[in-house]
Amino acid sequence: MSDQRVYNFSAGPSMLPLSALERAGSEITNYHGSGMSVMEMSHRSKVFMKIFEETQDKLRRLMNVPEGYQILLLQTGASGQFSMIPLNLISKTGKEDYAVTGNFSNLAYKEAQKYGQINLAVSSADRDHCYIPRQEQIKLDPEASYFYYCSNNTVYGTEWDYVPETGNVPLVCDMSSDILSMPVDVSKYGILYAGAQKNMAPSGLTVVIIRKDLAGHELPYTPLMMNYQTMIDKDSMYNTPPCWCIYMLGLTLDWINEQGGLEGMEKLKWQRANMLYDTLDNSRLFQCHAEKGSRSGMNVTFRTGSEELDAKFVQEATAAGFVNLKGHRKVGGMRASIYNAMPVEGVEKLCDFIRAFDQNN
Ligand SMILES: Cc1ncc(COP(=O)(O)O)c(C=O)c1O
């Protein structure tokens, strides 16, 4: 880790692999002899098209994306998908199932209500989203056009440890905060998507992986830019795509491959997370928000029970070089976001800090 860099526990945008940043830095004014920065290139130029195709290809291989699926590299933001999904998918039956297990699935659920009959298939709001419901708690409508869930709840710090079984109803998943942290079987999903700014690239890019037969059934008033079929037909280039972010994604994917791919990421994920949960569970002062069995490997939410002590913790941690640990206002306390690019050493040092704070307070 270079000298002045801090351990950044931000929920997003968040740490990127140092090697990716350094490579981008070394190429920033003159990319591969082109005489210009990737930021300055036409998205239709040969040199950028190569970056674009190679990045798509790297992602396809890393995630083992099957035939019949398209990888879209869009500008919508993950929140844009809250609208794009119902606009494109609901026409089949006019009904949709939503699992609300946190802040962002709740926002998606509310947005979808504009477009049809939305069934709340399951919710964890009864206990402040501290757990992930089990399969048998989900009330599925076999006539739903799709079932929607969010695999990792960034704000509350819970993560689905299974893929819900929905029969013939297509599965739609927001993987914004745990994509590329483990292997996933893409063939189980109709659509999976993620904002880039946690595990992939700078903000401004949204990756959507869609089973192509689901597109082309949009509601008649669907905005052109929100039509999956438009973006499939134009290979994400109906308009200018987020070129710089796509380039950065390519560099992050190279780094992931060097770390042993998604199996490597999954090992590191639980190495970091288990170390942190063990430290918190063995402390006198700290309690975790998420219930055991539902805990996220990416966002660890915890508190002391005293707002004053929480504030003191955040302040002292910041001074010691552990930044962005303040929890989301909906949960309070602290949140350590430990995405792919967080070095294991960063979590080891945070654990030392937690143990010392626990003893001294
Ligand atoms: C799980 C999840 N979904 C959606 C979003 C919203 O992302 P965006 O800001 O790209 O719209 C976030 C942002 O933190 C998130 O964590």
Summarize this, please?
The chain has helices at residues 18-26, 46-63, 77-89, 103-112, 228-233, 243-258, 261-281, 307-319, 344-360; strands spanning 7-8, 69-74, 95-100, 117-123, 147-150, 152-153, 158-159, 171-174, 191-195, 206-211, 287-288, 299-303, 322-323, 334-337. It has 361 residues and is of the alpha/beta class. The strands form 4 sheets. Strands 2-10-9-8-5-3-4 form a 7-stranded mixed beta sheet, sandwiched between helices.
Strand coverage percent: 15-25%
CATH superfamily caption of the largest domain:
Type I PLP-dependent aspartate aminotransferase-like (Major domain)
The backbone outline, from C-alpha atoms, is: globular
The string of secondary-structure elements, in order, is EHHEHEHEEEEEEEHHHEEHEEH
Secondary structure tally: strands: 14
Q: How many H/I helical runs?
A: 9
CATH class of the largest domain: Alpha Beta
Identify the CATH architecture of the largest domain: 3-Layer(aba) Sandwich
User: So what's the oligomer here?
Assistant: single chain
Given as residue ranges, the uncertain stretches (5+ residues, pLDDT < 50) are: none
Main sheet characteristics: 7 strands, mixed
Task: Please give a structural write-up.
It is a single chain. The chain is of the alpha/beta class and about 350 residues long. It has helices at about 20-25, 45-65, 75-90, 105-110, 230-235, 245-260, 260-280, 305-320, 345-360; strands at about 5-10, 70-75, 95-100, 115-125, 145-150, 150-155, 160, 170-175, 190-195, 205-210, 285-290, 300-305, 320-325, 335. About 35% of the residues lie in helices and about 15% in strands. Strand 6 and strand 7 (about 160) form a beta hairpin. Helix 2 (about 45-65) crosses helix 6 (about 245-260), helix 3 (about 75-90) runs parallel beside helix 4 and helix 7 runs parallel beside helix 9 (about 345-360). Bound molecules: pyridoxal-5'-phosphate. Pyridoxal-5'-phosphate (PLP) binds near residues 77, 79, 176 and 195.
